[in-house]
Backbone:
């Protein structure tokens, strides 16, 4: 998941609290030290870390828990609330006005992912029934226009470019009559190795000509806490209105980047969480911290489900999932439905309580190719084998299925193993209500 290392360390800190017989000053001080080590290892600014942990310590020592929750639960609630404040407090979104077109112009340095983000934003808004187009105004980086065109084509989005022209303003004017056909125009601009005078001048000229409704600063999370200084410089020079932090899935410095951006006062609107066009999510501090602490994120899970499958499919999926009694065909259908929502491991981390089960990292990683092989193997199984695999499957049956389907016996055994793993996991969860934890803490949306 995003910031996996930080998440594991924070969850371990909370587990220590729950195992404590009671909460005293020593427990609180140990928690503070654990939090400091965890945040500093995520490249968060030292002074900001000490300010945060001092607030947590002060509240934990001075405030009394309400009668509805225990002292341990109250301490966890304090950690949650202060981390939310630390990481931006509340959701802030790009409010798309019904004008044609609503212009989103992206700025930033080389290598931060502006062109890739253009594709992700186009995908995000097109899925929400907006008519979207992209415009390539990066005239400095070789093949930048062609890259944007290719990425846009992958998601069936129109793209306006002119690789021969080296004046971005002329390119903008060239297609000006076309823009009114679209609800949103996403504009990719050039970057530099540093925030130089010529970059500022180019951005200012483009802003004056284009008059964008939103100027989005794109930053890669791997620059860590240095993001703060760069974001403040861009904000002062270019009057940015939003920040998007990319590459959140591949760096230990993401904590420093998020805190640095939040501390500038410019709002983070999205996080890039992977390489695929759909790997973009709105940045909502409450939900983000909830996932970091292993409390799940049911709201985002439901939103992803609505995008991927119908309400009827979602209800049926939920019933079978919670029942914990399903056959191989049910397992396949569940995984097909969940695959539409993104990698299964990412979906699972949004379900409260699942991140605490300590399953192997690859236990729920099912690649598309493997699902196809499983489906072929199932076509060679009898009704009895599909409905009661745990009871009837034998080496002789597996060999027969392998010959009939052309799928190796090891692949069929993987399918049986996957079924047993998920069934065991469901039995562990059966009869429990993981959301009670969130309700006890009175977390947002519950």
Residues:
């Amino acid at each position: 998941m995003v910031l996996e290392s930080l998440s594991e360390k924070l969850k371990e800190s909370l587990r220590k609290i729950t195992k404590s017989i009671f909460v005293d000053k020593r427990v609180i001080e140990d928690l503070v030290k654990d939090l400091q080590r965890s945040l500093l290892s995520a490249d968060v600014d030292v002074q900001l870390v000490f300010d945060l942990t001092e607030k947590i310590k002060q509240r934990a020592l001075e405030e009394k828990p309400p009668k509805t929750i225990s002292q341990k639960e109250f301490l966890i609630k304090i950690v949650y609330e202060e981390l939310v404040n630390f990481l931006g407090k509340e959701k802030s979104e790009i409010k798309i006005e019904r004008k044609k077109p609503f212009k989103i112009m992206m700025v930033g340095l080389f290598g931060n992912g502006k062109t890739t983000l253009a594709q992700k934003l186009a995908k995000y808004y097109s899925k929400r029934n907006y008519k979207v187009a992209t415009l390539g105004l990066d005239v400095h980086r070789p093949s930048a226009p062609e890259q944007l065109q290719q990425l846009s084509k992958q998601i069936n989005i129109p793209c306006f470019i002119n690789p021969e022209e080296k004046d971005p303003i002329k390119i903008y004017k060239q297609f000006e009559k076309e823009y009114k056909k679209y609800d949103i125009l996403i504009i990719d601009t050039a970057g530099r190795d540093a925030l130089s005078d010529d970059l500022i001048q180019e951005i200012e000229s483009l802003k004056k000509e284009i008059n964008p409704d939103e100027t989005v600063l794109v930053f890669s999370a791997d620059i860590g806490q240095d993001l703060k200084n760069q974001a403040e410089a861009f904000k002062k020079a270019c009057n940015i209105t939003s920040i998007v932090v990319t590459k959140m899935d591949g760096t230990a410095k993401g904590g420093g980047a998020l805190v640095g951006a939040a501390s500038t006062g410019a709002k983070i609107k999205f996080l890039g969480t992977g390489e695929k066009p759909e790997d973009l999510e709105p940045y909502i501090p409450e939900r983000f911290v909830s996932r970091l602490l292993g409390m799940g994120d049911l709201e985002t899970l439901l939103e992803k489900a609505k995008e991927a499958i119908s309400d009827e499919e979602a209800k049926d999926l939920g019933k079978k999932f919670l029942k914990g009694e399903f056959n191989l065909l049910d397992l396949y259908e569940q995984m097909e439905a969940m695959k539409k929502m993104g990698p299964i491991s990412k979906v699972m981390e949004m379900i409260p309580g699942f991140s605490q089960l300590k399953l192997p990292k690859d236990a729920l990683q099912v690649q598309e190719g493997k699902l196809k092989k499983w489906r072929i193997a199932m076509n060679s199984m009898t009704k009895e084998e599909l409905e009661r695999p745990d009871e009837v499957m034998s080496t002789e049956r597996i060999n027969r299925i392998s010959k009939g389907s052309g799928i190796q016996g090891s692949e069929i055994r993987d399918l049986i193993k996957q079924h047993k793993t998920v069934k065991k996991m469901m039995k562990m969860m059966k009869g429990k209500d993981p959301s009670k934890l969130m309700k006890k803490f009175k977390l947002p949306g519950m």
